[in-house]
Amino acid sequence: MAQLWGGRFTKETDQVVYKFNASIGFDKRFYAQDIKGSIAHVMMLSRQGILTDVEKEKIISGLEGILDDVRQGRLAISDKYEDIHSFVEAALIQRIGEAGKKLHTGRSRNDQVALDMKLYVRDEIRILDNVLEELLHAILAIMEENLDTYMPGFTHLQKAQPITLAHHMGAYFEMFKRDHERLNDILKRMNTCPLGSGALAGTTYPLDREYTATLLGFDGPTLNSIDGVSDRDYMIEFLSALSMIMMHLSRFSEEIIIWNSNEYQFVEIDDAYSTGSSIMPQKKNPDIAELVRGKTGRVYGALQAFLTTMKGLPLAYNKDMQEDKEWAFDAIDTVRDCLILFAGMLGTMQFRPDRMAKSAKQGFTNATDAADYLVNRGVPFRDAHGIIGQLVLQCIEKGISLDDLSLTEYQKASPVFQLDIYDAISLKTCVDKRITTGAPGAWAMEKTLEVYRRYMEEY
After folding, report:
1. Is the separation of the CB atoms in 63 and 92 below 8 Å?
2. What are the structural domain ranges in the chain?
3. Rounded to the nearest 5 degrees, what angle is found at the Cα of 143, between the Cα atoms of 358 and 441?
């Protein structure tokens, strides 16, 4: 079919070229944003006297009819059109006649697609942020229920010091809290309206760009028409933020996979979020966590691909920019699905406090506190370190924990030890005496939880 730009050309585009050039297969996703932007544009044109009130009402009625018909499945978006803009305009002209041909007055597809993508990303950020909120609520609920669930904390994947499950989960609350804040920062920075930038140099029509921006919920118009059509920084920021979310989900997934193993048995993943083996009947695999971990690379790929595309583009608009959509759409879908599934898995997961506490004891996570016990009674730290190191070696040889050593064995290592050593190295004591801000002690954790509860109330 003839294209909107076909007047300059003397023959039809080769069909292979046409298909290669067309974007309707993927940009049809933002038909609602395209129509929303067109309605605001028409309202502004009428206000400026460029369209009559009759034309305005006729065009808006036609656009609203197209929107409703597409949503209800009464109108299919046809791939015989080059892009979603061409489809909407052609459908409008078919429905209302000559008035529909005035829709594109004072704009270019360059500023139109820049607007559509901004509107779409803005909508998707808000949807993703709502899903992220559910995950934060799930993490907070686990924290509130596990202030006294003791477990080993790790460095280098080696058991280090005792903490609580609440404290461990708090680290992920902090990560996803930052993700929430990053998304909102992007919203603030991207919230300028490119419509009215034209192809790159504005237009001779007396457009009121401030009015259009207000109608569409922007803080104002873009202040440089070249940048208005060629800016994709917000897309790169968004893909970067999505990559950060996936990195956090992947780290979390890695730990759940480890905790679910036979060697740890810290968690029991609900059957709904697990699968079995086709050959080994005993298996219960953490497939959702593994898939989330695996799909992280997919989102990273979208970011890297678009950075590579943008790095060599001269001003202003170039067709290369069309490549942002498929990557962005796939990354958005991937992150949204991963967040929803991960929150569901986390909310149904059963934790094993007995296994966690046993692992903390067997890993000598209270060794530092045993050394501190000696230091607090006058033993130089370096000597205390050596004494406890020898006791740990004894325990390893006997297959016991520091809690299982007799007082005689303690006093043989140092006469400073008394019966209160057992209370000093209990997991509860080791954790609860750590009360500085951000530490795992119950008092410190209650203070942190108060902050998190207020944060979620104001989310």
Report:
1. yes
2. 6-105, 110-151+162-205+223-356, 358-457
3. 65
* Contact status, residue 84 vs residue 30, Cβ threshold 8 Å: yes
Share of the chain above pLDDT 70, in %: 96
pTM here is: 0.92
- The letter for the amino acid at 49 is G
Given the residues 61, 78, 261, 277, select the one marked as catalytic: 277
For residue 396, give both structure tokens.
């390893």
The helix or strand, by DSSP H or E, that contains position 119, with its residue range, turns out to be helix 109-145
Residue 160 parent element (H or E)? strand 158-164
Percent over 90 (pLDDT), the chain: 92
pLDDT given at position 3: 58
pLDDT tens-place string over residues 69-97: 999 999 999 989 999 999 999 999 999 99
Sequence-distant (6+) residues with CB within 8 A of 111 are 194, 195, 196, 197, 198, 199, 225, 228, 229
Looking at domain 6-105, its CATH class is mainly alpha
Q: Is 41 a catalytic residue?
A: no
CATH architecture, domain 358-457: Orthogonal Bundle (1.10)
Q: How far apart are CA 184 and CA 166, in angstroms?
A: 27
Burial (0-12, 13-18, 19+ Cβ within 10 Å), 270:
middle
C-alpha distances out from residue 114 to 228, 232, 309, Å = 7, 8, 16
Query: With contact defined as beta carbons under 8 Å apart, do 430 and 365 qualify?
Result: yes
Q: Clarify whether 401 is annotated catalytic.
A: no
pLDDT value of residue 2: 47
Beta-carbon contacts of 453 under 8 Å, excluding residues fewer than 6 positions away, are: 140
Which numeric CATH code is attached to 110-151+162-205+223-356?
Answer: 1.20.200.10
pLDDT digits (tens, 9 = 90+) for 2-15: 455 455 555 566 77
CB 416 within 8 A of CB 378: yes
As a whole number, mean pLDDT of residues 276-298 equals 85
CB 327 within 8 A of CB 307: no
Q: CA 172, 262, 146 angle in degrees (round to 5)? A: 35
Return the C-alpha torsion angle 414, 418, 419, 424, nearest 10. Answer: -90
Residue 125 CB-half CA count within 13 A: 26
Confidence of residue 280 (pLDDT cuts 50, 70, 90): confident
Give me 354's structure tokens: 């007995």
